[in-house]
Design goal:
This protein is of the alpha/beta class and about 500 residues long. Helix content is about 45%, strand content about 10%.
Length: about 500
């Protein structure tokens, strides 16, 4: 175990040199970048942050190298808090402070009265302790009840009484969370929720780098990186960032949702908590893609979904967890050890959607559950178009030229197909295959037959996608039952009604 200097004299003899926290972050970031260029380029600067490599992380790197205070501005569920917490990984593993200091006093440049008096009395024998990164990172969620005493500090009558000092003595100060994070990183989440008068109290920290407490004439200089997160929706709904404070934040970085399905799937796979003690659900990439597409569809829907609120990345994460649980439950009921996820299992993800979509008036009138199911339908339809030809191809001169004609024709003759939630995977597949020529239709309609061959293990899912796609294009009717659903001819249903 490495031994660290225990006194100020030992620290001087060790050759250790202090540096500002922003210089420390900059040097450690540069060292990590050099390590990546000389070693494994796949090693991420911030593990677990996916889809931001060429946007947010690049801008964040520039900000740290420029020694800037930072504001991450973006809608909910874009990973702002996780990014800010990972800033601590760029701090030194340990740094020395004067033992017992409340504000992490640098032994070479103490700022508190306590540390100055201790060093003046003991000199090179002043005891030193080494603190890790966790002591140098502070975080506060901005709420309307946050006070200046919470952040900066206040006079503590009890402290003054026990030390037998007056209220005007510096020793009577009870430091807030920001001074206690001196020589580190302090983060305020949801900054617009902080009352304007409290934001004013941050101005000195941002520019002059000191704090003032009540009527004290003493100023205590701080060495600190200030970082904030904010949601643009909050500017109108709950508060705003006062202009002088916003002006003092050096870099404002705009976050965003995943720009493609691959990044979104990687995030969900990383974050979804799927730990089962029973049957292990098998979830194909097509199902994963459909779940991610739900969020993409909701972010594009302006008729029912309030786009100012955004659609959190937590939606597909929660949806994936619900889907896995539904498949696991079916495995328990059917006795299967590795049940496969089906399109019909997407009904289980509705509760993950209803609570995460902010709806406009028209959406409220339709109802959250109906909008959720509509988003699922849109997502499945989008994935269907990536797999199969359009059922309404106008270039076909004869109905028989349509690859779906044998399937549609079979249902037109009065045939129906009922699929149950309690069917085993084998029973489900046999039921789908009972539709004549359905596999030939899949092969004829496939946009890329080779892509389907790669997913041969999920060929049952291809059959299900084909029928559900025909339903979503109004070529087949679908009736939900208590434990399953039935496909039948659309025109027959219309005439019957």
């Amino acid at each position: 175990m490495k031994e660290f200097p225990a006194t100020l004299g030992d620290l001087k003899r060790s050759g250790w040199r202090s540096k500002s926290v922003k210089d420390e972050l900059r040097d450690n970031l540069l060292a990590r970048i050099r390590g990546r260029s000389e070693g494994d380029l796949r090693d991420p600067l911030m593990p677990g942050i996916v889809g931001y490599e060429e946007t947010v992380l690049k801008q964040l790197t520039h900000a740290i190298l420029s020694r800037h205070d930072i504001l991450l501005l973006g809608l909910r569920g874009q990973g702002k808090t996780r990014i800010l917490r990972q800033l601590a990984s760029f701090l030194d593993e340990r740094i020395p402070i004067v033992t017992g200091s409340e504000v992490n006093d640098d032994p070479y440049a103490p700022i508190s009265r306590y540390a100055k008096e201790k060093i003046a009395a003991q000199g090179d024998e002043t005891p030193i302790e080494w603190i890790g990164r966790e002591r140098r990172y502070g975080e506060k969620l901005a709420t309307p009840d946050v006070s200046m005493a919470d952040l900066i500090g206040d006079i503590d009558p009890v402290k003054a009484f026990h030390q037998k000092i007056g209220y005007g003595h510096e020793g009577a100060i009870q430091f807030g969370i920001i001074p206690r994070t001196n020589r580190g990183i302090f983060v305020i989440n949801e900054l617009p929720d902080l009352q304007a008068r409290i934001q004013v109290g941050l101005l000195n920290i941002m520019e002059e780098r000191d704090i003032q407490i009540r009527s004290f004439r003493v100023r205590i200089p701080l060495d600190i990186l200030m970082a904030f997160s904010a949601n643009p929706e909050d500017y109108t709904n709950r508060g705003n960032i006062i202009t002088p404070l916003k002006d003092r934040i050096d870099s404002q970085i705009i976050t965003h949702y995943p720009k493609n399905a691959e990044a979104a799937m990687a995030i969900t796979k990383q974050e979804a908590r799927i730990h089962t003690s029973g049957p292990q659900p098998v979830i194909s990439d097509l199902i994963r893609l459909a779940i991610e597409q739900i969020a993409f569809e909701a972010r594009e829907d302006k008729d029912y979904v309030d786009q100012k609120s955004g659609v959190s990345a937590r939606l597909p994460i929660a949806a994936m967890e619900l889907l896995a649980s539904a498949v696991e439950l079916r495995g328990l009921l059917t006795g299967e050890d590795a049940p496969r996820a089906r399109l019909s299992d997407l009904e289980a993800v509705v509760p993950a959607i209803t609570g995460k979509l902010e709806l406009v008036y028209a959406g409220e009138q339709e109802g959250p559950a109906n909008i959720a199911r509509a988003m699922v339908g849109k997502a499945v339809r989008t994935v269907f178009h990536k797999l199969f030809a359009d059922p309404y191809n106008k270039k076909e001169k004869q109905p028989e030229e349509n690859p779906y004609y044998p399937i549609i024709s079979w249902f037109e003759k009065g045939n129906t197909l009922t699929l149950g939630d309690r069917m085993t995977d084998a029973q489900y597949r046999r039921a789908l295959e009972s539709v004549p020529d359905i596999r030939k239709a899949v092969a004829r309609a496939a946009l890329d037959p080779k892509a389907l061959e790669k997913e041969k293990a999920d060929d049952t899912l291809h059959l299900e996608f084909l029928l559900e796609g025909l339903h979503l294009h109004s070529r087949l009717s679908k009736e939900n039952l208590s434990e399953g659903f039935t496909y039948r001819d659309m025109m027959s249903d219309i005439l019957k009604d």
